[in-house]
Amino acid sequence: MSPAKDVAAKATPLFAAYRVAARALAPLAWRKVSAKLRAYGLPEARVRERLGHASLPRPQGRLMWFHAASVGESLSILKLVRRLGELDPGLEFLITSGTPTSAELIEKRMPPRCRHQFPPLDHPAYVRRFLSHWRPDLAVLVESELWPNLIVETRKAGAPLILLNARLSPKSVASWQKHHRTATYLLAQFAQFITQNQETADNLRAIGAHADRIRPGSNLKALAAPPPVDADLLTQTQAALSGRAVWTASSTHRGEEEPVIAAHQELLRSHPDLCLILIPRHPERGDEVEALITEAGLTCARRSRGEMPSAQSQIYLADTLGETGTWYAACPLVFLGGSLLDIGGHNPFEPSHHGCAVTTGPGYFNFAETYGDMLAEGAATEIADAPGLAQQIGCWLDDPKTLEVTRTAARTFISRQSDLLDQTADLLLAQLPK
């Protein structure tokens, strides 16, 4: 059955009710998101992109549109976009993402013939305004960005829809199963689903996706280019550290810095020269994190003030954007945050690309399959709390051979993913209307 026939056959009362609610709640949603974007210092033309008003002209020729939620999803597609551009030199690209942080990072790493916009809120009129301007030839939604009006209006506008790197949490699956007819209707709009794993493929089929449109794939984040390294900054950092032992806690959230700092205090007992590079997930929390460091009686230097770690700096607070790759290059021992609390974890492929040994807390459910493989292969380790974190980092500091075994396993794990990039690109190009 074609997507067009599915549209006519399966619209549901629940979807109609959602459209009414989306219209009613749009003013409240607009006030909230516009305030956040203005607070970030964005010009009004960019803020109004959330109403579907484009701030850039549409390029000539065929346009492939990628929509991702935030930083991780957005950065995961850049290598793929670059490869698509190499395979089809006439193809243009639009990337939309909802956060100013993702916009800033995308624009720093933008592939050729690519531009960024914020997506319209999920109001039918805003979505139609967006689509009327951009007229995408193919729309690619990344991971779990299933906004009903965006999906239906895009298909009505004639663009084939792809769900790329599809991921569904058990909670999402259970929710969709309660509304099976509406799930089937929305999933019928898609021409193809390219999933992260077989489990997601099975879940999509269970909630109503057409089996012949599902293609199990790999986690797109494994195919992404590693975070860039600023060679000058790396040289400066290494000179400032002057051979000191160092470890990194990356992408930490509120409630995680305290156990990380406690682990560092424990490590300082046996490694008094040790430096911790602490990278909060949200750099704007720099003042808050610095206060925690001070309360713990430790000293720090702060990247956002242009400081380098001195001999007296026990913690280097790296509260900036876009420099994580440099910190990974400076230090092969990494704790990856978002995992000591029930947050879901963060992308372990990024430090692994740099040959880092990675340890994680137990709350990595967003990367359960990836961490399952990495833990089984010795490419990562799992800890439960501050004492466990101190013990694992201490083991790597004291036993370089064990550290090197973990780093080698991480490099091996990453190398197996690289041949999937062209396979994914070919699947997308095959869906592009001729």
UniProtKB/TrEMBL annotation:
GO terms for biological process: lipid A biosynthetic process; lipopolysaccharide core region biosynthetic process. The keyword Cell membrane applies. Coiled coil: none annotated. Residues 46-222 form the 3-deoxy-D-manno-octulosonic-acid transferase N-terminal domain. Its EC number is 2.4.99.12. Its main location: membrane. One of its GO terms (cellular component) is plasma membrane. The keyword Hydrolase does not apply. Belongs to the glycosyltransferase group 1 family. Glycosyltransferase 30 subfamily. This is 3-deoxy-D-manno-octulosonic acid transferase.
